[in-house]
Each structure stands twice: as C-alpha cells, then as structure tokens.
Amino acid sequence: MDRLVIEGNGPLSGRVRVSGAKNAALPCLAAALLTEGPLTLTRLPAVSDIRTMLKVLQALGTSAEVVKDPEGFELTATLALANPAEGLRAPYELVKTMRASILVLGPLLARFGRASVSLPGGCAIGARPVNLHLEALERMGAQIAITGGYVEALVPGGRLKGMDHTFDKVSVGATENILTAAVLARGTTVLRNCALEPEVTDLARLLVKMGAQIEGIGTPMLTIHGVERLGGCTHATIPDRIEAGTHVCAVVAAGGDVVLEAVEPEDLRSLTDLLERCGAAFTIREGAEGLNLRVQREPGQKLRAKDVQTAPFPAFPTDLQAQVMAVMTQAHGISVIKETIFENRFQHAMELERLGANLRIDGGTAIVAGPCRLQGCTVMATDLRASAALVIAGLVAEGTTTVDRIYHLDRGYAGLERKLEGLGARIRRIGGGSV
Ligand code: UD1
Asked: Which end of the chain has fewer CB atoms surrounding its CB within 10 Å, N or C?
C-alpha cells in the first residue's frame, strides 16, 4: 500500500496548475448515458474515482476512448453508448468503492426506462443516504424496489414524466441525478431547493450543449423542459476548487508565495475570505488559461484563528473543512469549526492530535487552540479530504511525517505529491506508482 513521506521544511513557492474538478467530471461522465454520443470530456482529473466511473459506464455498455496528457494529471475521454449492456447493471464491486456511481441512475431511467444500481451503503464520513434521489425519481413515475442490495428501477411506459418538486434538503448528488433524469422526461420539471455548487452548474451547462432545455442555471430553482433526444458535444471540466483550496491551505499553513494557475477564484471565495481575515493575502490576475490566484503568507507571519462553519455553496465547503483545520493548528487563538453536512467528518482530528495539534471534538464541533508545534510521526488517512489535511500538517511538522493509506488521496487528487514537490516540498511516495 502506498504512503507519503514528508519532511516538513517550510515555505512553498512557485506555480501550480490545478486539474479539472473530480466532482464536476463524475456527473458529466454519467451524462454520457443520455446520448448515443460521442461525448468528449476534456480536463478530467487522472484520479481513481474517474477511472471507477469509466468502469461503471463500460459495464453499462459505453465505449470509452481515454487519452492521458503528457504530465499524467489529466484525461480526455470520448464516450458513446449505442448498445446498452443487458440488465443495465452498475455492480456492487464498483459502486462500493465510489458512492457517486449512484449518479448513473437518473440518466439510465431517462433514456432506457430501467436500471439496476447497487446501493452505495455507508461511508467513513457519515450515513449518506440516497432517499432524496429515489423519492424524486418515484415522483417522476419510476417504480423502485431495493432487492439484494440493488436499486431495481423501472419506468412503466418507458419514459419519466415531468413534475414540480422541492428537495427536502439541499443535496448536490440528488440535484444532479434528478436534473439528468428530467432532461429527457415528458413535459416540464421544476426542481426547487437545488444545490448551487459550481459542479451542478457545470453539469447543467454540459446538458445544454447536448441539447437540453434548462432555465435557472445557477439558481435554487431549475426548470427543465424535456426533449426527445440529446446529442454529443465536447466539454471541458471546470477547475477543481477543492484541489485549489487544498493548495491554498498548504501555502497558508506552511508559509510561502504560490500562483495557482487556471482556477475560478469566485468558487473559492468562502475560503479566501476566511484566510484573508486570518492574515493571508490573495491576488487575482488574468493568466494564459483563465484566471490565476496568487496566495501569500510570509513565513513567520502571525496567523489569526477564525471560526469556520460548513454549509452548502456558496458557504464554506465541507470538502475543505479538514484542510482548514490543519491551517488553524498554526493560527494564534481559538478556532471553532462546525461541521453541518456530514455527521462523522472529524476523523482527521485524531490524527492531527497525534502530530501534536491541540484540539477537542464535541459532537459536530471541533475546537482548535493554536498555534501548535507539530512533530512528524506516522498517521493514517481515513478519507479523501482527511488525507489532504494530514499532508498539509506534514508540510508544517518538524521531522518526518508518514501518511499511510493514501489510496484515499488518490481517489481525488491527481499527483498531489508531484505538484507539491514542484513547489519545493520534500515529499515522496513509497510503495508503488501514482494512479
Ligand atoms: C457531494 C460531493 C462531496 C461533498 C458533498 C457536499 C460529489 C461526487 N461528492 O456529495 O464531495 O462533500 O457533495 O458538498 O460531488 N443526503 C440525504 N439524502 C440523500 C442525499 C443526501 O439525507 O438522498 C444528505 C447527506 O447525508 C448529507 C447532505 O444531504 O448530509 C448533503 O449531501 P450531498 O450534497 O447529497 O452530498 P453528495 O452529493 O453525496
């Protein structure tokens, strides 16, 4: 099993190009099921979750031609689904490794009127049910049964019907699943209380390119007029705000001066606002490929502790909570970090404590008292973003930090250690190759 070995050695400097967003790419890949294609998606991050989704699509009958960029950070995939596999089954062996596989359910029901998708089950950061997805699909006319651990879904008559639906809770995945179901439904669907995450907007823009009729993109109310069929197109994935935010947290925690290339600073506003109040400086400039974001924190410059509360976009993302906790171990004062999205998302806290962080967990709240002098040791990654927090802590800690079980990290970061190495970090992978 691969591990990362980090020698904490102070400031980071240089430039780093951020890859495409995993969480935008996953629903866009699932959208390939809506058309005979071909659908070409560029700037897909070369991470294991994307490979898993490609395998799910292939199991459903999709042909996929995949090309890696020379550096190995990104993929271009051309997908086409002319002859669906019998059973239209997304198997447990794949779904269990990645919950987002449930995103194939909406497109399959929309185009083929049937699907069999393994229930994803629990996950390290919380229960993560899919009730919101299933309830909405039932209201669109799908008959759903849970049999042998699978969601067995059938649409009598073959075509979903439009509806007016308010999600009980804001859910990124449910918004994406039902949006991709509605684009081929009969009539108009109105979805209220939709997630506003940039990844949802990216999916909606792709669907429009494919021929879908969607109003209200970027707002909590989406109106979708179902069309008879969708066509292929080419679409570039948006930059990964969570990867970008992870680099930002690394620079602010360790100190340094780094330019993040090809990012969307507006999508990072909740993080940069917070860290500006802590004492970091940010500058936005036009770059060769979109916008660049420069992040600066003088080594030794005092950081102020601030409170953080996670909530749906545009508020602070739960996917950056672990990384910002690593930053707060270096800030002066008390930081109260409230997690409101997932009930069990503080597993990195125990590992940060092993490195010397001074913190206390009370239900959904973590209290960090800084600054803490971190000292390297062996720590274990428990989930994707927790791994990133441990890498950041390792960059700050004195001595050697070994982060074990980094297959979690490889689910969502394309060559993070190579990118950090390019910024001057002393970090290396042991025990095998990159994804
Ligand atoms: C997506 C992201 C994940 C991010 C999360 C929240 C992807 C592939 N993953 O996950 O990285 O952390 O958004 O920003 O894009 N819920 C229900 N019933 C449901 C669905 C969700 O109760 O049917 C709850 C969840 O348990 C959670 C909350 O709603 O408490 C938000 O989850 P959701 O937005 O659906 O997260 P995902 O789409 O799974």
From this structure: N
Distance 100 CA to ligand 1 centre (A): 9
Whether residues 39 and 94 fall in one domain: yes
Please tell me if the CB atom of residue 122 comes closer than 6 angstroms to any atom of ligand 1: no
Give the confidence band of 435 by pLDDT, cuts at 50, 70, 90: very low
User: What is the rounded distance in angstroms from the CA atom of residue 376 to the CA atom of residue 272?
Assistant: 28
Which residues have CB under 8 Å from 435's CB, separation 6+? 46, 47, 48, 51, 410, 414
* H, E, C per residue of 106-134: HHHHHHHCEEEEECCCCECCECCCCHHHH
**Pocket flag, ligand 1, residue 173 (CB < 6 Å):** yes
Contact 38, 212 (CB under 8 A): no
pLDDT of 344 above 90: no
For the stretch 149-201, pLDDT in tens is: 999 999 999 999 999 999 999 999 999 999 999 999 999 999 999 999 999 99
Domain boundary among 187, 211, 236: 236
Please indicate, yes or no, whether residues 117 and 260 belong to a single structural domain of this protein. Answer: no
Give distance in angstroms: CA of 99 to centre of ligand 1: 10
Average pLDDT over residues 407-433: 92
Give the active site residues.
123
- pTM above 0.85? yes
pLDDT at residue 410 above 90? yes
Q: Looking at residue 302, which CATH number applies to its domain?
A: 3.65.10.10
Domain co-membership, 68 together with 11: no
Given 236, 266, 286, the domain boundary residue is 236
Residue 196 CA, ligand 1 centroid: distance in Å: 12
Ligand 1 pocket member 198 (CB < 6 A): no
Mean pLDDT of the chain: 96
Q: Atom 5 (ligand 1): residue with closest C-alpha?
A: 172
- With 50 as the cut, is the pLDDT of residue 55 above it? yes
| Binding site membership of 431 for ligand 1 (Cβ less than 6 Å) | no
In degrees to the nearest 10, what's the CA dihedral of 356, 362, 367, 369? -50
